[in-house]
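dumping this here before i forget
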Amino acid sequence: MLEVGTKAPDFELPDQNGKMHKLSDYAGKKVILYFYPKDNTPGCTKQACGFSERYPQFLEKGAVVLGVSKDSVASHKRFEEKQNLAFTLLADPERKVIEAYDVWKEKKNYGKVFMGVVRTTYLIDEDGVIIKANDKVKAADDPHNMLEELGS
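structure:
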């Protein structure tokens, strides 16, 4: 996980519609950049729907939400449509950004060891500096917690 106080690495990734996004496009806004393992899985769906339900509140606080996984643009599009998501999903099938943000780690599930995305949320300030980093994310609580982080 990247440390608080570090400059967030810039990147360029396609969204669920194939449109390219750079982190630097969001200069002047707070960015909630969250990494999740897989589209349409129970935890990831809870997390995405929570961000989507609260998206107007994030916008009111001058923040945007960007979700990143190694799923394809097409997978993100299906996820967005199925869950009626209101924010941007970024596709990183080559794991360039996932690795730059140090969230590709060894994981264990039922005794099986494998590499995967560790659910991690970063809050990046208007100048592109990480001001909050959490790799102990509870999917269902993350959207509420991030809204709290933004304060009133």
